[in-house]
Design brief:
By secondary structure, this protein is mostly helical. Helices cover 29% and strands 4% of the residues. The protein has a three-stranded antiparallel β-sheet. Strands 1-7 form a two-stranded antiparallel sheet. A two-stranded antiparallel ribbon has the order 2-3. The radius of gyration is 22 Å and the shape is globular. It starts with a strand and ends in a 25-residue tail after the last helix. 49% of the residues are buried.
C-alpha cells in the first residue's frame, strides 16, 4: 500500500480535534532495571496464587497482547493458556472472572492515575499513602505507586488467584476478611516468597533496607511487579508515534481513519491524549455477558460499572475509557469482552443503542463452563436500562469508514513492547505460563 510520506500531503485533511503531542521519556516514571528484573520473576511465578497454579501472566500474557484472548478470564481452576484454557474437571472454577482482562501497556506513564474498569483505585493525595482503594483506611502503607497497589488486588479474588474459600491458607484468610497484618492474605504470600532463598537474595540486592527474609513485605513484592510492568510494556514506538514525530508517514487508509478518529467519527472525544484515553468514564451500552460484578450473595448479573464506586446515578453502566495502544492485539474488546471482532466493536461504538438491540452473541470467546452467561442479555429490563444510560449521539459510518478506522488503530500498534520477555524459570520452581 502506498505510503503518505509527507505530512504536508495530508495537511489539507484537517481534523476537528488536534492531534496529541508526541510521547517522550518525560511522560513516564523512572524505572530501576534491577527492580524490574525481580518483578519479572514474580509476575510469572504462580507462588502468589492461593493454589500456586495461577500467575499474573495467566491472564496477562505477552503472547496475547498482555491479556488472555478471552472475553472473560478463567483464573483459578483453569488449565492451559488463552483460548486453549479449559476448566479443570477436578477443581473447576466457581464462576468466570466478571470482567475482561485489561491490557498492561503504558501503565508506568505519569498520566495513569486511575485504574480498573470502574476506577476503583486512583491517586488521591488526601488519602494515607496517596491512594484511594476499596481497602480505604486498611490499605497497607508502602506502595510506591498506583500501579503497585493495582497489581496485588487480583491475589485476593477467589475467581482470579486466591481460589475457592477453603482450598488454601490464602483463600481462607480472604474468606475471613483477614487481609492485612500478620497472618493476613498479603502477609501469607509475602512469607511464601520469603521462604525461597533465591528471592531473598534478589530482594536484598534491590532494596537496601532488606537484610533477611523477615524484612520482605507484601508491598516490596508489589512494587517490584509494578516496576516490571512499567518497564516491560512501555509502548511509544508505533507508526503513529513516528508520524507525530515527523519521521515517517502513514498508509492512505490509516490517514483517512485518523481524520475520522479526530474528526467526524468523534472517537477522540473520549480517546484523547497521547495514549488515546481521557481516563474518564462513559456508558457505551455494551451487552451484558457473564456473572456481572456483585457480591456472592447477590442474585443479579448486573455490572453497574463506575456507579459501584461513586454511588452517583449518572455513573450507572459507565466504564473507564481504555487506552488504544496495541488495541488490535488486545481483544476481545469491551469491559466484558462482548466483541471478538474489532471492526464490529468500532461499528457498535458508533451507534451503541442499535448495536445492543442487534447484538450477535457469537462474538464472545469463552471456554466451556456450566454457567448461564446470558442472563443479563435475556433480561429485557436490564437491556433497556443499559440502552437508556447511553448519552452519546449515534454516528453514521460506512463499511469503508469502519475499515479505515480499524486501519488507523493498527497504526497504534508497537512491535517493540516486550523487553525482558518470559523467564525460562522462576525461583519457586513452579511452572511458567507459556502458549
Amino acid at each position: 500500500m502506498r505510503l503518505v510520506l509527507s505530512l504536508l500531503m495530508v495537511a489539507g485533511m484537517a481534523t476537528a480535534d488536534p492531534l496529541p503531542p508526541p510521547v517522550t521519556g518525560a511522560d513516564y516514571l523512572p524505572v530501576d532495571l534491577a527492580e524490574a528484573r525481580l518483578g519479572q520473576l514474580l509476575f510469572y511465578d504462580p507462588i502468589l496464587s492461593g493454589n500456586r497454579e495461577v500467575s499474573c501472566a495467566t491472564c496477562h500474557h505477552p503472547s496475547l497482547g498482555t491479556g488472555d484472548g478471552l472475553s472473560l478470564s478463567m483464573g483459578d481452576g483453569g488449565i492451559g493458556l488463552g483460548t486453549k484454557r479449559t476448566a479443570d474437571p477436578d477443581n473447576p472454577p466457581e464462576q468466570r472472572v466478571p470482567r475482561n482482562a485489561q491490557p498492561l501497556f503504558n501503565l508506568g506513564a505519569r498520566e495513569f492515575t486511575v485504574l480498573f474498569h470502574d476506577g476503583r483505585i486512583e491517586a488521591d493525595p488526601a488519602k494515607p499513602g496517596g491512594l484511594r482503594t476499596p481497602m480505604d483506611e486498611d490499605m497497607l502503607q508502602g506502595f510506591v505507586s498506583l500501579l503497585s497497589a493495582q497489581t496485588m488486588f487480583p491475589v485476593l479474588s477467589p475467581d482470579e488467584m486466591a481460589g475457592h474459600y477453603a482450598e488454601s491458607d490464602v483463600s481462607r484468610a480472604v474468606r475471613q476478611g483477614i487481609i492485612t497484618g500478620p497472618g493476613g492474605a498479603w502477609d501469607i504470600i509475602a512469607r511464601r516468597v520469603a521462604a525461597v532463598p533465591a528471592y531473598v537474595d534478589d530482594f536484598k540486592a534491590v532494596y537496601p533496607r532488606i537484610t533477611g527474609s523477615d524484612d520482605i513485605a507484601f508491598t516490596d513484592i508489589s512494587n517490584a511487579i509494578a516496576a516490571f510492568m512499567a518497564h516491560e510494556w512501555r509502548s511509544d514506538d508505533s507508526p503513529f508515534d513516528a508520524y507525530l514525530r515527523g519521521t515517517a508517514g502513514l498508509a492512505e487508509d490509516q490517514v483517512r481513519g485518523m481524520d475520522l478518529f479526530y474528526g467526524d467519527a468523534g472517537c477522540s472525544g473520549c480517546h484523547s491524549g497521547p495514549f488515546q484515553t481521557d481516563h474518564g468514564f462513559h456508558a457505551m451500552g455494551l451487552p451484558p455477558v457473564g456473572p456481572g460484578k456483585g457480591a456472592r450473595f447477590e442474585t443479579t448479573v448486573r455490572d453497574e460499572g463506575r456507579f459501584r464506586v461513586t454511588g452517583n446515578p449518572a455513573d450507572m453502566y459507565a466504564f473507564r475509557t481504555p487506552s488504544l495502544r496495541n488495541v488490535t492485539r488486545t481483544g476481545p474488546w469491551g469491559h466484558d469482552g462482548a466483541y471478538g471482532d474489532l471492526a464490529a466493536f468500532v461499528a457498535a461504538h458508533a451507534d451503541p443503542v442499535a448495536a445492543l438491540a442487534n447484538y450477535d452473541r457469537e462474538q464472545v470467546v469463552l471456554p466451556l463452563m456450566a454457567t448461564d452467561d446470558w442472563r443479563g442479555m435475556d433480561n429485557a429490563d436490564e437491556v433497556a436500562a443499559i440502552a437508556a444510560s447511553v448519552t452519546t449521539a449515534p454516528v453514521e459510518l460506512s463499511a469503508r469508514q469502519v475499515a479505515d478506522l480499524v486501519a488507523f488503530l493498527g497504526a497504534l500498534d508497537d512491535p517493540n513492547t516486550e523487553r525482558l520477555g518470559v523467564p525460562d524459570a522462576v525461583p519457586s520452581g513452579l511452572a511458567v505460563a507459556r502458549p
